[in-house]
Every structure is written in C-alpha cells, then in structure tokens.
C-alpha cells in the first residue's frame, strides 16, 4: 500500500513535505522518510470551476490540510461540501490526466463521523 | 556605488496587440529611448524581461532579436525569466550594473504576447510556476491559490467579498483614466459581485485579465542623467526575496513573507519608511493580493488592509493611492511586462504627467512585483531626482 511520505531531518527532527536538500530549520542534509499521518484538518479550500486539463467535471475542490506540528499538504479534497476544520485522511488515487496519461497521487477524503 | 536614474519611460497600450512580440517590445523601447532623448547614443546593455515567449509565440533568445530590431547592436543583451517578476528582476539587475559603474547607459524592456494562446493554455503555463509535484499535478491554478488565500483572510480577519469588489471597482475606475489600460470599463460593486465564479470565492471581477503588452525604461547614472532630462527619477532602493515554493509549507500561508522581506530591504536601502510613500503600484493578479501586499509591504497593519479599502485610503484621492494605473486587474497583466508597466506608471506619476489619474504631491513611489504565488518578490522605491 502507498504511504504518504514526508522527510524528517536527522539533525533537528523537522518534518518537511515536499522534499528539500537542506533542512528548512537547521540546514541539515540527512533525512529519513516518515509517514505524514492518517488524519489531517482542512485549513482552507476552494472549489475551482475554471478547471485545468485532465479534470473531468467542475468543480474541483482543492485545499490545504494540516497534520499537526505545522506539517501541511495541498491536494484534492474528495467532497462537494468542504468545511473548514473537517477531518480528512490521505488516500491514493488518480488525480487527473496530463497529456493523455493518468497521474496518480494522494488526495484527501473526509473521515466519516461515527 | 553610484546613484541611478530612470531618464526615459514608455509603454504600449495593454490588451490585445495587433503586432507580434517583437513589434510591441520595439514600440515600448523606442518610446523610452525617445523620451530619454538618447536616440543617437550607444547603449552598453539591454535587459529583456519575459516569461513565456518560447511557449506562446515560439520564439527564444528574444533579447538578440530586440537589439537587432531597434539597432542597439553591439550592446550586451539578455532575457530575464523570473515568472511574473521578470521585469522587477531585469530592472534590479540593470540597476546593479549601472550603480556599480560597469555600464553607463542601459535599456530595460519587458514584453509579453499572450493572446496567441488559448486561455486554458495560458492558465496552465502560469500554473507551472507552482511546485511540480506538491501542487501542479494536483490541478492547482493561480486563481485557486488566490481563492484559498481569500478564504483564510475571510476566516481570520473578517474580510468579505464586498471588499474584493471594492478593490475591483477602484481599479476599473482608475484604468478609465489611463489610455494604456487594457480594461476601459467602469464596474459596480453589485456588478462585480454577480459575475461568474472562477474559483470560489473568487469571481471573474476579482481576477486579472490576460494581456499583451510591453513597457521599457532607460537607465544611467544620476550625475549623467542631467545631460538628458530635467526630471530624472532616482531609484532609491530595491529589495528582492524569496519564500518556499509550496504555499502549504510557508510559516503562515496567509503571509507573503517574501513581500515583507523585500520591502524591509528596499526601505532600508532607500532610508525611508512606508509612511513616506505617496503612491504605489502593487501586484493585484487577484484583488485579495492588493489587500495582502498593502499589509505585508508595511502600509497597513496585518489584517487591516481591507479596512483601508473601506475608508478609501487607497483611492486615487485617498491618503495612499494604490494602483492608479488600474493595476493588473484593469491596466492588465502581460506577465513578463507587468513589473515594468508598474515602473513606467510611477515614473509618469513622479514627473506629474498622469493627467486625470495624477496623484497629488507624488514625490516617492513604491512598486511591488511578484512571481510564483508570492514566493519571489522584487520591490523598487523611486523618488524625484531633481
């Protein structure tokens, strides 16, 4: 199963996503891969109507999610009814087509309230 | 280091240009050269700012073409690409070259021809400025970035859609007084608020158009400037700073830190403070950006920029007029040329040549030009050099 990976600085412990070759905090140059987390909160979002190539139907919901400790990610939000602060989990899937080719990556799915 | 002056400025009307990229670059350049009265002089260098000629007009190495077209051969010539901050970067590099004493007479021209490509192609080209794996492939566009920033501001600072509409109305009104502006049409708050949604909560009227256009200036040392003009405009300072590329990874996604840093550098170099500025041109690709930049440049407290809009502080007859040209929203956004159009407007403002849109007592001016989604910012401060 695909894991949503970030990069943890071996010197200071800061987790970064995406990858940098010098740590954003301490300029360390050694990193280990870590899973970003299984639950994140929605920080901001938009429903994009002027959609780019390879997205089938508007609107495309996009947003920034926060895993805690200032580790955040950007991606597609799998709901037409996004709410700030809602809990989401990363899931692997098809993002869009680009030049006829399917592109895969992580997107974010609401965690149902039990 | 020598003092550097702008001794000539010129631009084309922004909008849909009849001519090709080289036609508009040559037109703006020759206007600047004639304005500086240096038609017969030898130039040392030419900096050409452009973002996407290879993709939109299938032409590369365009600086070589421009020096050929307007016969500035054998001046050193190069193209600078720095996204929509290309012109700010080109001016900065030209400034350093003249200030250092290495070059004496320099042309800086920004030009972009975008109407040759379809809107979705241009939107995609602009989106390639975002982080390739963490942002671009997920389907982000620049309007989507603007929309997410707007939502953060609504949540945190009480900004409403009406504030965005008010900025658009102001900039459309200013552009009506600018014969070089792309959009020559008044709009109302209600009209703006009923336009179509591009990326919720951004509507069409809160987003800049795609424009063709070119703008140029001529630089030399301030000492030498007096030989050519009674009204040299001194480049008092610049700042240039970057931030991490992915918006989600910034310390605070609601802060344009590169704007804050570039602004601090520019004010320090100029020996001025934000309150000294009489008129500003800022990079309102989306109307939220005029508000956020006006705070991060240092004009208003963080989270209070929309209040200044409400109080008409930034109107043409306000305490600090912002975007008298109409801004990117209405003067137009010809990406690689936009930063130079800001500079040309401010040169004209400082020389008192802006007619109906002239800002009273405009002696010191600031231009904020940025690339990416606010992660590469160039700020210039200009002042009357006479």
Can you summarize this structure?
The complex is a heterodimer of chains A (114) and B (386). Chain A has strands at 5-9, 15-16, 31-35, 40-48, 60-66, 72-76, 87-98, 101-110. Chain A is mainly beta.
- Whole-angstrom Rg of chain B: 19 Å
**How many E strands of chain B?**
11
The percent range for strand residues of chain B is: 15-25%
Instruction: Outline the low-pLDDT stretches of chain A.
Output: none
Q: How would you sum up the major sheet of chain A? A: 5 strands, antiparallel
Instruction: Kindly name the structural category of chain A.
Output: mainly beta
Fourth-level CATH superfamily of the domain at 4-117 and 210-225 in chain B: Thiolase/Chalcone synthase
Look at the structure and give the mean pLDDT of chain A.
95
What does this structure look like?
The complex is a heterodimer of chains A (114) and B (386). With 114 residues, chain A is mainly beta. Chain A has two domains: 5-35, no CATH class; 40-110, no CATH class. Chain A has strands at 5-9, 15-16, 31-35, 40-48, 60-66, 72-76, 87-98, 101-110. Chain A is globular and about 45 Å long. The two termini of chain A are 25 Å apart. The model of chain A has no long low-confidence stretch (mean pLDDT 95). In chain B, helix 4 crosses helix 14 (335-351). Chain B has a domain at 4-117 and 210-225: Peroxisomal Thiolase, Chain A, domain 1 (3-Layer(aba) Sandwich), CATH 3.40.47. Chain B is built from 14 helices and eleven strands. Chain B is α/β, with parallel strands linked by helices. Chain B has a nine-stranded mixed β-sheet, with helices on both faces. A two-stranded antiparallel ribbon of chain B has the order 5-6. At the A-B interface, strand 4, strand 5, strand 6, strand 7 and strand 8 of A face helix 5, helix 6 and strand 5 of B. Strand 4 of chain A pairs antiparallel with strand 5 (197-200) of chain B.
What is the element layout, followed by pairings?
The complex is a heterodimer of chains A (about 110) and B (about 375).
Chain A: E1 5-9, E2 15-16, E3 31-35, E4 40-48, E5 60-66, E6 72-76, E7 87-98, E8 101-110
Chain B: E1 4-11, H1 21-35, E2 45-49, H2 53-56, H3 62-69, E3 76-80, H4 86-99, E4 106-112, H5 119-127, H6 142-157, H7 161-175, H8 189-193, E5 197-200, E6 202-203, E7 213-221, H9 222-225, E8 233-242, H10 257-270, E9 279-281, H11 287-296, H12 305-310, H13 327-330, H14 335-351, E10 364-371, E11 376-384
Parallel strand pairs in B: 2-3, 2-4, 9-10
Antiparallel strand pairs in B: 1-7, 1-8, 4-7, 5-6, 8-11, 10-11
Helix pairs in contact in B: 4-14, 7-11
């Amino acid at each position: 199963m695909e894991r949503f990976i970030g990069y943890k600085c071996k010197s200071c412990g800061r987790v970064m996503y995406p990858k940098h070759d010098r740590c954003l905090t301490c300029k360390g140059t050694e990193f280990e891969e870590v899973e970003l987390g299984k639950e994140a909160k929605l920080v901001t979002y938009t429903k994009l109507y002027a959609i780019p190539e390879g997205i089938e139907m508007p609107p495309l919901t996009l947003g920034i999610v926060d895993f805690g400790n200032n580790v955040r990610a950007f991606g597609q939000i799998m709901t037409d009814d996004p709410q700030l602060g809602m809990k989401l989990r990363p899931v692997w899937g098809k993002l869009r087509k680009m030049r006829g080719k399917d592109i895969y990556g992580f997107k974010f799915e609401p965690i149902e309230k039990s | 280091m020598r003092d550097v002056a702008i001794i000539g400025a010129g631009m084309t009307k922004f909008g849909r240009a009849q001519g090709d990229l080289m036609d508009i670059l040559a037109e703006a350049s020759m206007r600047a050269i004639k304005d500086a009265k240096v038609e017969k002089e030898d130039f040392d260098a030419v900096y050409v700012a452009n973002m996407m000629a290879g993709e939109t007009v299938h032409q590369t190495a365009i600086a070589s073409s421009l020096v050929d077209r307007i016969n500035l051969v054998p001046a050193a010539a190069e193209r600078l690409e720095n996204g929509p901050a290309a012109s700010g970067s080109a001016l900065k590099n030209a400034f350093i070259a003249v200030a250092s004493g290495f070059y004496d007479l320099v042309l800086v021209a920004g030009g972009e021809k975008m109407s040759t490509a379809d809107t979705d192609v241009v939107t995609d080209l602009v989106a390639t400025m975002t982080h390739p794996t963490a942002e671009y492939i997920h389907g982000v566009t620049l309007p989507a970035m603007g929309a997410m920033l707007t939502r953060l501001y609504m949540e945190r600072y009480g900004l409403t859609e009406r504030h965005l509409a008010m900025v658009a109305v102001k900039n459309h009104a200013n552009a009506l007084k600018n014969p070089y502006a792309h959009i020559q049409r008044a709009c109302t708050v209600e009209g703006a608020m009923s336009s179509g949604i591009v990326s919720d909560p951004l509507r069409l009227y809160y987003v800049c158009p795609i424009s063709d256009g070119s703008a140029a200036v001529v630089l030399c040392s301030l000492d030498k400037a007096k030989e050519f003009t009674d009204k040299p405009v001194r480049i008092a300072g610049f700042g240039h700073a970057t931030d991490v590329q992915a918006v989600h990874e910034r310390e605070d996604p609601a802060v344009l830190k590169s704007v804050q840093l570039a602004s601090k550098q520019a004010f320090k170099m100029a020996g001025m403070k934000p309150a000294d500025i009489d008129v500003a041109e800022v990079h309102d690709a989306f109307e939220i950006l005029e508000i956020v930049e006006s705070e991060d440049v240092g004009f208003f407290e963080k989270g209070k920029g929309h209040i200044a809009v409400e109080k008409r502080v930034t109107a043409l007859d306000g305490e600090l007029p912002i975007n008298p040209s109409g801004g990117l929203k209405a003067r137009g956004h010809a990406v690689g040329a936009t930063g130079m159009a800001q500079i040309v407007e401010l040169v004209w403002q400082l020389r008192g040549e802006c007619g109906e849109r002239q800002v009273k007592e405009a002696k010191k001016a600031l231009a904020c030009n940025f690339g990416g989604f606010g992660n590469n910012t160039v700020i210039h401060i200009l002042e009357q050099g006479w």
